[in-house]
Design brief:
- The chain is built from 13 helices and twelve strands.
- The chain is α/β, with parallel strands linked by helices and 338 residues long.
- It has three domains: 40 residues, no CATH class; 127 residues, Response regulator (Rossmann fold); 129 residues, Response regulator (Rossmann fold, 3-Layer(aba) Sandwich), CATH 3.40.50.
- The strands form three sheets. It has a six-stranded parallel beta sheet with strand order 2-1-3-4-5-11, sandwiched between helices. It has a four-stranded parallel beta sheet with strand order 7-6-8-9. The chain has a two-stranded antiparallel sheet with strand order 10-12.
- The longest helix is centred in the last third of the chain and has 17 residues.
């Protein structure tokens, strides 16, 4: 029986969804899909529920942007540290404050948000890299505009700033193929990040398009970024490929130094290519061919997207792909015998 007064809870019960979803849809906030929003608005109209949408009125900016990342991501100062500094500069230019919080494993697993979320003082959120899919969705459930940096997932419905990982990995593999290599290994831990999985996809696509068969024993895609793990994986191989593509400079450095310890000369016997153009790629001897990532641009684009999202809460979600460029150095050379 229809009640005398229609409430959000009544609409939610009729549609078998949460009251929070109804509130987000009718207030024009992000957090629900466009199909769900339309279904809720239609039900509200049919039931005679009167509401005021904020679609035409951007939310008031009080002055605080939250920057979140896992303990692990914040420990990667060479890569994510540069992005953090860029975000800090861009937020300051707009006269707002940056509130920084590292998310430990317990908070992640128990879905505990930082205390400042309780006081409704945050206007936007930037998340660097991966925390967990459930934790990111916990943040999105607050309805606060959120942008991800260097991470995305089909279940995390929000804007993201990403590298074009597939094209970059394709280019890296193509570079090695141009040098005459037909046995090209892959080294990394694709479970750690969707970006790494995309680099594996770019690598396999390049081999396929050049008619080079995949050699499964040379695709080491579940190796942890630790010296002992990389060394053990390389030692187990019956035969080394003539080149390695590594998902980041940490793996590139570990692969190169262990191969040298085994007596291989780089690049005469083996070539090594990696990713990120970090300090390790420049400190190794020889220096490693890698891919340059414009970290300043990474941070700037995230802030630009967040501010746009705060002013356009109902526009379709966007993913922005940033280009990377190869930096050719001494660790890659012609395949042996050429």
């Amino acid at each position: 029986m229809k009640p005398k007064k229609i409430t959000m809870q009544y609409i939610a019960d009729q549609l078998n969804i949460s009251k929070n979803s109804v509130s987000q849809a009718l207030s024009g906030k992000p957090g629900v899909s466009e199909d769900t929003r339309k279904r809720i608005e239609k039900a509200a109209e049919e039931l005679g529920y009167h509401y005021t949408t904020s679609k035409k009125q951007p939310p008031r900016k009080r002055g605080n942007i939250a920057l979140l990342a896992s303990d692990f991501a914040f420990s990667q100062k060479g890569f994510f540290g540069e992005i953090y500094l860029s975000v800090q500069r861009e937020v300051a230019k707009r006269g707002m404050n940056l509130v920084i919080q590292s998310i430990d494993d317990e908070s992640r697993d128990r879905l505990i948000l930082p205390s400042f979320f309780e006081y409704d003082t945050i206007d936007g959120v930037i998340i660097i890299s991966h925390i967990s899919t459930d934790y990111i969705n916990r943040i999105l459930s607050t309805g606060i505009p959120t942008v991800l940096i260097d991470h995305h997932h089909p279940f995390n419905c929000t804007d993201a700033i990403l590298l074009n990982n597939r094209f970059a990995a394709y280019t890296a593999t193509h570079h090695l193929i141009e040098l005459g290599h037909k046995q090209i290994g892959f080294m990394g831990d694709v479970e750690r990040s969707p970006s790494y999985q995309e680099r594996l996809e770019g690598y396999t696509l390049a081999l396929k398009e050049h008619g080079i068969p995949l050699e499964r024993e040379h695709i080491l895609a579940d190796i942890k970024e630790r010296e002992e793990d990389v060394s053990t994986a390389l030692d187990k191989l019956k035969e080394q490929p003539t080149a390695w593509f590594c998902i980041n400079d940490g793996f590139g450095f570990l692969v190169l130094t262990h191969l040298q310890a085994l007596g291989y000369k780089i690049p005469n016997d083996l070539s090594v290519c990696s990713f990120d153009n970090g300090p390790l790629s420049r400190l190794s001897k020889p220096k490693i061919t890698t891919f340059n990532v414009d970290l300043e641009l990474y941070g700037r684009k995230a802030v630009e997207q967040l501010y746009w999202r705060m002013d356009h809460p109902t526009e379709p979600l966007q993913e922005t792909l940033l280009h990377t460029s190869i930096v050719k150095r001494e660790s890659t050379g012609p395949a042996p015998g050429l």
